[in-house]
Structures
1.
Amino acid sequence: MTVDWRDKYITEKGFRFTELINDDFFQPFRVLYQAGHYVSSIKLMLVAVDSIGYIEFGESSRGEDTPFVKWLNEYADLTSVKVTPRELWEHRNSLLHMSNLDSRQVQKGSIKRLVAYVGSIPPEVELLEENAKYYDYRALIHEFGQACNKWIQSYNDDPSKFDQFIQRYDLIVSDSRMLHIPLTS
């Protein structure tokens, strides 16, 4: 039984980076998505962006962009999703803190409310877009995957980042790396 994530993902064959990210971040929100728990899936995906942003950039100073926004700006192309990193940050705030769509910035009117959908919106459905933007959650998942690929590649391009990755990743918790001890009855 292994306690340290490194025992499982760093082997004599090398670092299984993609597998680690899949097991710790993609698999949990994929399970929820496949079960039709889309809002819970979105929440976990946004937590994944938060965690990966922290791994890459550490803590942010007051007045600067959050690691979440920085990571998306650096690695994601959200053009096809038609949302901005800042809008996703506010979406994250509203969903994770209150399980609603109105963060403080949305309430102030400085950012539009984001509304996710899964599937195709029929042409006869009229979306109320005055204060809201709609995005395809599947498209966001795809773009998050592409951004993770680009991020992982950055470690091949700059191996000196790996030490900091290890330090910060050791602080991240996940189901796949949780110590499971069989309970006795």
2.
Amino acid sequence: MILGIKELHRLVKEKDLVTNLSERELENPEGAGFDLRIGELYEISGQGFLGVTERETPEMILIAKHEKGKTTEVQLKPHTYYLLKTMEDVYMPENLLAIMTPRSTLFRSGVYVFGGQVPPGYQGGLNMGIYNYRETDFRLEMGARVVHIMFFEVKGEGNLYRGQWQGGRITTDQK
């Protein structure tokens, strides 16, 4: 079952389910979840590898970061894939799973955010891909709402996240 706004606000207040939410999401969110904002944008450089027992991510180069009180706009180049990190952090309890979907303004503009699921037990910032499918640049302001996150109750027993991305790590090189 998807959690509604009243329950989400209670969990934010009592359990820090999501931290650093915008005033809009705390006062008057839309739908049955929260919009999350872009906090950091990374350009991807070099080769990656995913094996059976090892993995290595490409180098990530920070190209923009949201700064409170400052307007920063970036240009997403055509046919280019980036990594973004949200301004918000999540602290997932063992009985919830979250799913992220792109905001419709982005896909109406030919830009897609590759969000996924956030497993029970995950804590930290959320990283996802963003790709400009168009032939022209797309202007994106840091701090803009880019994904909608919805929370679902896990019935029965599940396992907590114990992967290396705990805490919002960007690359395999980070500790």
